[in-house]
Amino acid sequence: MRLRHHARTQLAIALIRRGMRTSLVARISGLRPAVLRELHYEIHGCKPLPGQLPSTATLLGTARRQANASLFTGLYRAFGGAAVQRCIDIEALLTGHRLYLEQMAGLTGSDTLGPPLDINQGWVIARDLTTGLVLFRTCEPCAIPYVAGAFSRRSVDCPICALKVSRTGRDRKDDAPTEPLASSAAKQGKPNRDAKTHS
Question: Region Disordered: what ranges (predicted)?
């Protein structure tokens, strides 16, 4: 009994260190909210903040957010296996999220996928995988797996392909040749200073 309580306490500490809401930690660990609030204060030096969890509609609302969530979910499934679509694997969630943050740190300079998901947002996606609100799909053209909301208009769109198209369009615009000065001046009806004048 003591060992089981100790294991639950250690799990709660690990989750709180990662920034998980105490309401979620209570659900996962089975510890009383009052105990978890004390642990949160000892670890972070402040009281836990209240607030609602985000919805998957928000987390998957754009191609960039969808690609971001797909990176996390792919790592989560790599450690938890197909079983993550039936129940949440907390150990796989922690390991996948840690590696996900490492991957995102390498992309921070380019801001490719926006800010990383925190552990609470990751848990929401993991939860909705088990209910069928989040689905795994594979893009036929690029063969990359991604996640989508079951009832989202984006459910059939690959976010990776969408970002590639968007990036290519921006690159083409940036690489467009500039007009020569003389040609530009002529179009605006301005005299060319280098042209010779005839008396």
Answer: 169-199
